[in-house]
């Protein structure tokens, strides 16, 4: 598949041939759902547990007389009603560490890239700026017609001047090619790849 390459301000910069094995896969909702769910679960931290009666270090010996105290006949300091006792029906520890086959993960990413290739993919020559200022960058975006949420993916490392300038604009996110993932690609309206990022992504699946 051939796609036009443009400059960051929207000017023409030739064409590029995209690998159909990476950018021409027919998307499937079930695969994308599985990968997105897996990614979001992996981002969750361990749910912290509370200590219940069996977890607290309190005496289990009967600490009062059976009769004559005028109070209840308690036999365990670890009961929830005492200070330092275990919590009744406390939160349990939960680890969010699901597993997903590598082939499914790879397929999901290729499907996400392919869905953007059909609608919402832009390839630029580079993210280098002559004037690394936010105001100048916004003017270039308006000229190129970038609207809504836009994700820029560069090669091995993101150009620092571009990242700092774009960081002040709402809805703009920047990441390197090795950090590309299904969730971030799908939640943005437009995906902008540099020519270097295209090469890195194609090599990632061919290697």
Report on the architecture of this protein.
- The protein has 207 residues and is of the alpha/beta class.
- It folds into two domains: 153 residues, Ribosomal protein L4/L1 (Ribosomal Protein L4, Chain: A); 47 residues, no CATH class.
- The chain has seven helices and six strands.
- The chain has a six-stranded mixed β-sheet with strand order 2-1-3-6-4-5.
- The protein is elongated, with a radius of gyration of 28 Å.
- It starts with a strand and ends with a helix.
- The mean pLDDT is 88.
Q: Which sequence of strands runs across the widest sheet? A: 2-1-3-6-4-5
Uncertain residue segments: none
- The radius of gyration computed from the alpha-carbon positions, rounded to a whole number of angstroms, is 28 Å
Order of helices and strands: EEHHHEHEHEHEH
Number of domains: 2
């Amino acid at each position: 598949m051939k796609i036009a390459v443009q400059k960051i301000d929207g000017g023409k910069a030739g064409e590029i041939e995209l690998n159909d094995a990476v950018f021409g896969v027919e998307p499937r909702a079930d695969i994308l759902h599985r990968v997105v769910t897996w990614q979001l679960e992996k981002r969750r931290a361990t749910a912290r547990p509370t200590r219940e009666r069996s977890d607290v270090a309190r005496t289990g010996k009967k600490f009062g007389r059976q009769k004559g105290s005028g109070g209840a006949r308690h036999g365990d300091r670890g009961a929830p009603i005492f200070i330092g006792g275990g919590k009744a029906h406390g939160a349990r520890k939960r680890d969010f560490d699901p597993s997903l086959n590598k082939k499914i993960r790879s397929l999901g990413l290729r499907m996400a890239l392919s869905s953007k290739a059909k609608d919402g993919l832009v390839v630029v020559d580079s993210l280098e700026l002559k004037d690394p200022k936010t105001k100048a960058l916004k003017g270039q975006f308006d000229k190129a017609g970038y609207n809504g949420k836009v994700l820029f993916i560069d090669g091995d490392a993101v150009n620092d001047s571009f990242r700092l300038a774009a960081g002040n604009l709402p809805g703009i996110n920047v990441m390197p090619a090795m950090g590309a993932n299904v969730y971030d690609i799908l939640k943005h309206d437009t995906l902008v790849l540099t020519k270097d990022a295209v090469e890195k992504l194609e090599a990632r699946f061919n290697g």
